[in-house]
Amino acid sequence: MKSMISTDRLSKTFGSFTAVDAITFDVQEGEIFGFLGANGAGKTTALKMLTGLLTPSSGQATVAGFDVRKKPDQVKQRIGYMSQKFSLYEDLTIRDNIRLFGGIYGLSNRDIREKTEALLEKLELEGEAGKLVGSLPLGWKQKLAFSVALLHEPGIVFLDEPTSGVDPLIRRQFWELIYEAAANGVTLMVTTHYMDEAEYCDRVSIMVDGKIEALDTPRAMKKAFDAEDMDEVFRKLARGA
Amino acid sequence: MRTVFFLVQKEFLQIFRNKTMLPFLLIMPIFQTLLLSFAANYEIKNIALGVVDHDLSPLSRQLVNKFRASGYFQIKTASFAVKNADDAMAADRIDLILEIPQSFERKLVREGNAPVALTANAINATKAGLGMGYAQNIVRDFNVDLAQSKTALLASATTALATGRPANVRATYSNWYNPHLDYKTFMVPGILGEIVALIICFLTALNIVRERELGTIEQINVTPVQKWQFILGKLLPFWLLSLVVMTVGLSIGKLVFDIPMLGNLGLVFGYTAAFTPCMLGLGFLISNFADSQQQAMFTAWFFMLIFILMCGLFTPVESMPEWAQVMNIFNPVKYFVEFMRLVLLKGAGFEDIRQNFFSVVTYAAVVNGLAVWTYRKRV
Fold it and tell me: What is the pTM assigned to this prediction?
């Protein structure tokens, strides 16, 4: 097993406010790593540092074997990212979006064509390829965004609250896509505030006020906190903070 | 470069699919050129004149008729009381009062001169100034007529004596480059320059901020797309569009207004291509200081309003105070308007606009440099 994400006392401060406070963790290849925490706990900031959107204030982080501070371009070529805000182009068609992101990751025209067809078939969107993305239901958009993030076959995909605002059925389908990607060897780092989703992860870390307060498998965590489910673990942790 | 190609392609897809963008790009130049060229007119006709004729003599009537026949004045009120005329001016019904005193004719015949009073409503200073100018010309003309008829009378009476004849010196005018003093000829090239500058700056600023607002810029930022590629992908499409807007505007200028195109059209497009990076860069710079399209709009509007009012389109740059002329060094629209007039109306070649051209190229380089620098700091 090789470590795909590795951080050492990674921190981010904005003025006097410390958003991420010296977090240290490792994520193994093919692992689904859950990043839990209340809103404002620092999950998104941590994710932004790992994806090269923000420069760390201090500490180290390597992603896919490259230092995020020194080799951001190498990192970017090897990761996929799906942000909290839906961020495909809504005024482009499904096909246009796939072509654009394929193109900027440097896929050949042939690859783009082949992958487009494969992706449309997998999501059962063949008939909708010419539709504007903005006209799709939210659940479909999310699935499409995830598939587009996987287009250039990245080793790691970061998902920032990918299922917020989606109904439970679609969330279930979405997680099936995540499992499938993990089975193909993709490492996934998922932030969420749905505690039931935490149960789907191989390991989870819980962030409170910028710090990682707990990091283990869901089973071990429930045992350690003597809790019925992850929700209870979280409540017990939050009360302690 | 392949990445830039994909980004440019995406931009064009968005532009052509956008329901407001295309009308904005095509209808706005058409509409503005038509509307502004017909409406923005320095020539003032139909000055409302109030006449107070206390004399009611043949000569006073002759003077009033001269005003009426000039084509510049419309006699709105004629009364014998100054108060009526004053009230009419207070109510904004008339712009100018011509008051002819009693015994005007008698004084004129006996003493050789007689006063008339002209009062202008100077709230609209331009109109007042021009009205006064026209009125003085008419009165001067009236004097000349009078002198001529007098000498004609004298000449017929005493045929031999021609010594007392007053020398009439008259200036003759010829207006070069716009021989018929057609204001549309003067305005259209300038308005074209202004429109291209305005549209390009707004579109660029709004477009970039829109991506920030929607969050799509974040998605692009996690890809290996380099900053220069992203910027080029944004600026290239609008740069090409500026040439389209220019073509549309020039066609209207030619077809509707039949403006002269003495200069080389290749030079016009070449210069436009060199000029629009100024506006692209400004739009881009503004976008770096705005988080929402609304903010970008207000900021762009702040600058564009100053640029347009000071660019020489409506008032000549040369008659602005010294400090304003110095400030105008930073006004890109000024260079463009100046260029358009020089090349279209005067047929200037590259040699004549060399300095303007290099100013614009320098401007574009500085603004884009600043924009790239602030963009780097921001992301």
Answer: 0.77
